[in-house]
Amino acid sequence: MKLYSGTGDKGKSSFLSGERVKKNHPQMQAYGALDELNAAIGALSAALPEDMAQLGAQLEQVQRDLFTAGAWLATTGESPVIQRLTALTAADVARLEAQIDELAAGLPELRSFILPGGHPAAAQAHVARTVCRRVERHVVGLLDQLPAETDYTAQIHRLLVYLNRLSDYLFAAARRCNQAAGRADVIWPG
């Protein structure tokens, strides 16, 4: 199988459900940003020190969740394909919340903003956090265009909630990476 097809050469791409739309379609924008987020999380995982294997396992689950979400963004609410998709659940959001609490335990209380950076893994967590916020903005825009009361719209809204927690998780992960490396948060204003 070739890695290229040429079918996108005229600026269109296909949803999982088969519909072809322009590559700058709001749903494609959200889907593409989600893919970028998944790659940023992969880079974060690769940057982790070996003694942070638990965080690496959590990040792998996040990547799996993002593939689940990507399948929803790669189809439409009218497509029968959605009947076969796995859904993000309230338990997925609750898992992230519990992991945020674990990561934040023992971190110094924040009373100011911090500058992104520090250990390479922490810096990569901040990059992933900002990409996550971009995906969140795309999903908000997409929700503005969807009908209010459908199962599809409910799943996209669940993704929005998940992304909101994920950005908090990535912030806590960045701080935990710096703490594990013996680096203090750099406070702003300094």
Describe the structure.
Helices cover 60% and strands 5% of the residues. It is mainly alpha-helical. The chain has a single domain, classed as Cobalamin adenosyltransferase-like (Hypothetical Protein Ta1238, Chain: A, Up-down Bundle). The protein has a two-stranded antiparallel sheet with strand order 1-2. It starts with 11 loop residues before the first strand and ends with a strand.
Provide mean pLDDT, rounded: 95
Largest sheet: 2 strands, antiparallel
Order of helices and strands: EEHHHEHHE
- What does the oligomeric state look like here? single chain
Helix coverage percent of residues?
55-70%
Features:
single chain, 190 residues, mainly alpha, Hypothetical Protein Ta1238, Chain: A, two-stranded antiparallel ribbon, two-stranded antiparallel sheet, 5 helices, 5% strand, elongated
Write the layout of secondary structure elements.
Elements: E1 12-14, E2 20-22, H1 26-47, H2 53-73, H3 90-104, E3 113-114, H4 120-145, H5 151-180, E4 187-188
Antiparallel strand pairs: 1-2, 3-4
Quick summary:
This protein has helices at 26-47, 53-73, 90-104, 120-145, 151-180; strands at 12-14, 20-22, 113-114, 187-188. By secondary structure, it is mostly helical. The chain has a single domain (21-75, 87-106, 113-188), classed as Cobalamin adenosyltransferase-like (Hypothetical Protein Ta1238, Chain: A, Up-down Bundle).
